[in-house]
Write a structure and sequence with these properties.
The complex is a heterodimer of chains A (271) and B (313). Chain A contains twelve helices and nine strands. Chain A is an alpha/beta fold and 271 residues long. A six-stranded mixed sheet of chain A has the order 5-6-7-3-8-9, with helices on both faces. A three-stranded antiparallel sheet of chain A has the order 2-1-4. Chain B is globular and about 60 Å long. By secondary structure, chain B is an all-alpha fold. Chain B has a domain of 182 residues. The chains are: A alpha/beta (271), B mainly alpha (313). The interface between A and B is medium-sized, with 35 and 31 residues.
């Protein structure tokens, strides 16, 4: 697939934005991000097709989160072009939901669970307006989808890590987007939460939405995702699990830090 | 006798109490967000750099009229905020250190400038800048309670009162209009950017609002009160509730009670202890504010929280 579609894309890229023919949820070309003088992500091309679920995998510090932040313009890009549904982000924000790492925010912030979920309705509420009871009802629906409806009035600092992650997912659901970008949604969560999150994400995919997760647990990649992108500053592989998540690509990405036996176990766990 | 008491209150106490209260609220409101962003010290920085700003404004315009002074102080605040950002990025030092370096340097430069330049015969003194002079803001035109309805008499109220009222209205308007943006970008800047909030602009607007409050309050009540009011009422309020809106409401209540109680204690407190002299109202307001915080630390319902701080990025 990759070569053909790529040629088509390059020719698309020249003139086709207005034709509306390109509905790829997220397409990244030549993305380069650096912190100081050290590149964290170097010249990455990637394409995330509609209704797919992709794991972004790589060792610590390999630029997985930075790839997402660079694509969203949260950290400045040195180079590269990013298109959401064929358009720059500012034309497509309504279709894109982002879930940052749980540890990136201060959970001591004075807010209740429902307040955080209603942040997902920011664009819908609109400038100079306050959320009303209609928005509150929508937020409650989203909390129900992640099994957190009984915690709506709880202060967010009083939740467990798994519960906090579910609140973040509920906020993304409130955005009612087409593309969901999640940064380590399974980091430090309990088994029940992991199960709840996976079933919500699979439900999104079944509804035709596109999901991209930065993911650190190699043992669950084949069970949860249908596509993978391996990255270690540069992209190592990308595509369906069977092609992109192999002992060769893992070896190349982790540079010998994984033993053959570990990799063999991963493959055993698949399918 | 009663009428005398009323006239004395109107002439001597009404304006200082109102001005102290408005200044305290104007500082406490943006202080809530500064505190949650762990930028509480920025109020301290802004109120110190007001001095060089005022000196430069005087040297440029040659007058000590209020508006040029305020523009100078606000300009200095913007310069200071820019310098703090610059030092943070170039020097890769933590924000507290960058603020400390900038405001002490600029404040010292202001003192030197004041000494070297020919400001003799003009009343700009450092003590006034620090402690303010709340007690001098009197309402000569008051002749009785009916003066409160007399436009002519009201026009004789100290101009600081009107300036602070305007400033407070601007700050309330800003915070109401951009409440969602302030809340979301304070809690989760990454998410805020992803939904299209210009977090840099919001942060800058907040600092400008704080600078306006600091400069207006500085003019009336001195910088000690400014520093106290940015930090104490919001920090006290945080210990009372886990909701942002209620925290802001509590902070207004604490700012108001500190201003009123502080003024009354400063004027009458020493008498109760047999001393004929009043103490500085600004100092007493700041002290009451600190006592409120101390009490909330001991008794506030939300003083024991389990939330963890964000991991360094």
């Amino acid at each position: 697939m990759s070569l053909d579609s790529h040629i088509e894309l390059v020719s698309d890229g020249g003139y086709a934005v207005e034709t509306g023919g390109d509905d790829c949820p997220l397409e990244v070309r030549g993305l380069t991000v650096a912190y100081g003088e050290k590149p964290a992500v170097f010249s990455v091309d990637a394409r995330f097709p509609s209704a797919s679920m992709t794991a972004i995998v790589g060792p610590n510090g390999a630029g997985k989160s930075t790839f997402l932040k660079g694509a969203l313009g949260i950290v400045p890009r040195l180079a590269g072009e990013v298109r959401f549904y064929g358009q720059p982000l500012k034309e497509a924000r309504r279709d894109v939901a982002y879930v940052p790492q749980r540890a990136s925010v201060d959970w001591d912030f004075p807010a209740r669970v429902i307040d955080v979920v209603m942040m997902g309705l920011y664009r819908e509420v609109g400038l100079f307006r306050f959320a009303g009871s209609r928005h509150r009802a929508r937020a409650m629906d989203c909390l129900e989808r992640v099994g957190m409806q009984d915690f709506a009035d709880r202060q967010i600092g009083q939740l467990s890590g798994g519960q906090q992650q579910r609140v973040f997912l509920a906020r993304a659901l409130a955005q009612d987007a087409e593309l969901y970008l999640l940064d380590e949604p399974f980091a430090g969560v309990d088994a029940a939460t992991e199960h709840a999150i996976v079933s919500v994400l699979k439900g999104l995919k079944a509804a035709g939405k596109t999901v991209v997760c930065v993911h650190h647990d190699l043992s669950t990649v084949t069970a949860y995702f249908d596509r993978a992108m391996l990255i270690n500053m540069r992209k190592q592989s990308e595509g369906p699990i069977a092609e992109a998540f192999t002992s060769e690509t893992l070896q190349a990405t982790y540079g010998g830090r994984l033993a053959e036996s570990q990799i063999a176990e991963l493959r055993l766990g698949s399918c | 006798m009663d009428a005398d008491w009323g006239v004395e209150f109107l002439q001597l106490s009404l304006a200082p109490i109102l001005i102290g209260t408005l200044a305290a609220i104007a500082c406490a409101l943006p202080g809530n967000f500064l505190l949650l962003r762990r930028q509480a010290l920025i109020g301290d920085a802004i109120s110190h750099v007001a001095l060089p700003g005022i000196v430069v404004a005087f040297l440029v315009t040659g007058t000590i009229a209020a508006w040029p002074m305020m523009v100078g102080a606000a300009g200095a605040a913007v310069v200071a905020v820019g310098l703090i950002e610059l030092i943070k990025r170039l020097g890769k030092v933590e924000p507290g250190a960058a603020m400390g370096v900038v405001f002490t340097t600029l404040f010292a430069a202001g003192v030197l400038l004041l000494e070297q330049s020919d400001t003799s015969g003009v009343h700009i003194d450092v003590e006034h800048a620090l402690y303010g002079n709340l007690e001098s803001l009197i309402w000569f035109d008051a002749t009785g309670w009916s003066s409160l309805l007399d436009i002519g008499a009201l026009a004789g109220l100290p101009p600081q009162l009107f300036r602070l009222a305007i400033v407070l209205a601007v700050i309330v308007g800003f915070m109401a209009a951009f409440w969602k943006e302030l809340a979301i970008s304070t809690f989760d800047p990454g998410f805020a950017q992803a939904v299209g909030i210009r977090t840099g602009a919001v942060g800058f607007a907040l600092v400008v609002a704080a600078a306006i409050a600091a400069v207006a309050a500085f003019d009336a009540v001195g910088s000690i009160i400014v520093i106290a009011m940015f930090v104490c009422p919001p920090a006290t309020a945080r210990l009372m509730t886990d909701r942002l809106g209620r925290q802001v409401a509590w902070s207004v209540l604490f700012a108001t009670t500190a201003a009123i109680a502080g003024y009354v204690f400063a004027g009458y407190g020493p008498l109760w202890f047999g001393s004929p002299y009043a103490v500085s109202a600004a100092g007493m307001i700041a002290t009451v504010s600190g006592v409120q915080l101390g009490l909330a630390c001991l008794l506030g319902p939300r003083r024991r929280r389990t939330g963890q701080a964000a991991a360094p990025q």
